[in-house]
Structure formats: structure tokens, C-alpha cells
Write a structure and sequence with these properties.
Number of strands: 12
Strand content: 15-25%
Number of helices: 8
Helix content: 25-40%
Largest sheet: 7 strands, mixed
Distance between the termini: 72 Å
Length: 277
């Protein structure tokens, strides 16, 4: 009677999905079997130039340059980066952004890159040349509504994020209609009176939802003067609180970006049940 030995198998992760492969398989063998057109091979977070044997629980990513990952592949890669529990909470969340200029467009990009489930972006303005020094737009988008241009840019970053865009001016009468469904609202207006209008009406009309505001990020003052401060259970303020745009002190990409990412990180912490600080 003849006996045949069954090839030993092991588990590895291919593009973050667990698969069973022969225990003696090499990296190049795996590429030939699974994705022969792949020209970028990453094993355990490092690009690989040469063939090598694979080990149990190795994490391999096979990429063909220029080819977009399927939505499920992109989601799996983000899930692995964020850890599953964190990613699941992010993906189920909805964030509103009132104003998509320097602050708002950068907040939107950051949240899109982490795979937020849905964004509600609201702004009535158009992209103009003076915006390009700090806002997340391109020169060929001048003249487009900001929400239209931003939606286009965000979908290029992560088409799995749902974008609800409104080209309207925010008023006390439409705040509930625009932002009643969001889990957190980012205030990203320029004018102090608009900031006050949004903050007062949102906190009084929409119960239990926090608002993350920005104030004080002009010029090229020290980076570490921009902070995140919790003013109340529902109101978080990011910025230095004092440096407004004025003659001799303009709004510039570095500090605006720092403040915007303070806001984005405060929003992320709120979504994950952490205290913004």
C-alpha cells in the first residue's frame, strides 16, 4: 500500500486577508500563483527586492503599480493599519464640516484618509486663486464650487467614503437640516460672527452632539502655541485663541494645517470615546 504525505500548510495574510499556503512557499511563488502582474511586493511592512521563504503569519501585500485596489481590499488595508475595532467605529461615523476653506478642506482630507464613513460638507463659496496658499484645491479647480471640488478630491483619495455636499450658506434656520444627523460637527468658518452663530445654534438646537471649533492659527507663530482645549462637555476649541488674520499676519498653510489636524484628531478621539486634549 502506498502512502502519500500531505503537504504541510501554514497561514499567512495576503493583502490583509488570511489564506492557507504550502509551508515551503516563497514570496515569488506566491506572486506567481496569486498576482503575477504585481511589481511591488511588501512583506511585514518592508518592500522586498529578492525572493525569500515565507513564514507562518507573514503579512504580504502584492501591488500592481497604477492599479486601484478593490473597495474591500482598501478597507482591509485601512483596517489593518487602524486595528479592526478602531476602524469599525470610524467607518460607522458621520462628521459634519461647516466651511471647507483652509481648516475645513484639511479636516476633510484627514478624515477621508482614515476612512470615515460619511462626511457632510457645507460651503457656499467658489475656489479662487488666493485660496491655493493653504486650501486643499488645485489650480485647475479655480471657479468651481468648493464643495464640488472637494468632493472630487476626496473621492480620489478614498472612494469608499460617502460625501454629502451642500453649496449653501449656513444659517440658524438650516443648521438642523444640514447637521442633525452628524455624530460630531467641525466648525471651520473664517468670520468670528459666523463662528459664534454656528456654535450657539448647534449647541442649543442639536442635543448631545459635540462641536469642534477652530480659533487662532494665523501667521507663522510657534507651532506648539496651537492647542486643543475642552471648553465644555460638548465644545472643543483648537488653536491659540488669539492670532487672527490681519495686515502683516496672513493665513498660511503650516499653522492652518496644524490647527486643522488638531480638530481632526479631536474628532477622531470623540468618535472613539476618548477625551480630546
Amino acid at each position: 500500500m502506498a502512502f502519500f504525505c500531505r503537504n504541510e500548510m501554514m497561514r499567512i495574510y495576503l493583502n490583509e486577508q488570511p489564506i492557507e499556503v504550502p509551508a515551503d512557499i516563497s514570496l515569488f511563488d506566491l506572486r506567481q500563483q496569486r498576482r503575477p502582474d504585481a511589481d511591488l511586493l511588501i512583506i511585514n511592512g518592508h518592500p522586498a527586492k529578492q525572493d525569500q521563504p515565507l513564514q507562518e503569519d507573514d503579512r504580504v501585500v502584492l501591488i500592481q503599480r497604477g492599479q486601484q485596489p478593490r473597495p474591500d481590499e482598501l478597507d482591509a488595508l485601512l483596517r489593518a493599519r487602524h486595528t479592526p475595532g478602531v476602524h469599525d467605529k470610524i467607518k460607522q461615523s458621520c462628521v459634519g464640516i461647516a466651511g471647507v476653506g483652509g481648516l475645513g478642506s484639511a479636516i476633510a482630507v484627514a478624515l477621508t484618509r482614515i476612512g470615515i464613513g460619511k462626511l457632510v460638507i457645507v460651503d457656499y463659496d467658489l475656489v479662487e486663486p488666493s485660496n491655493l496658499n493653504r486650501q486643499q484645491y488645485f489650480i485647475d479647480q479655480i471657479g468651481l464650487p468648493k464643495v464640488t471640488a472637494l468632493q472630487e478630491n476626496l473621492q480620489r483619495i478614498n472612494p469608499g467614503v460617502e460625501i454629502e455636499a451642500h453649496q449653501v450658506k449656513v444659517t440658524p434656520d438650516n443648521i438642523c437640516e444640514l447637521f442633525g444627523q452628524v455624530d460630531v460637527l467641525a466648525e471651520a468658518f473664517d468670520a468670528a460672527e459666523e463662528k459664534a452663530m454656528l456654535t450657539g445654534n448647534f449647541l442649543s438646537k442639536i442635543a448631545d452632539k459635540p462641536l469642534v471649533a477652530g480659533s487662532g492659527m494665523a501667521g507663522y507663530e510657534p507651532s506648539n502655541s496651537i492647542q486643543t482645549e475642552r471648553l465644555s462637555d460638548r465644545l472643543i476649541l483648537c488653536g491659540d485663541g488669539t492670532t487672527a488674520a490681519e495686515p502683516g499676519r496672513g493665513l498660511m498653510a503650516p499653522r492652518v494645517g496644524i490647527a486643522a489636524h488638531h480638530q481632526a484628531n479631536a474628532i477622531l478621539r470623540l468618535l472613539l470615546g476618548e477625551k480630546p486634549e
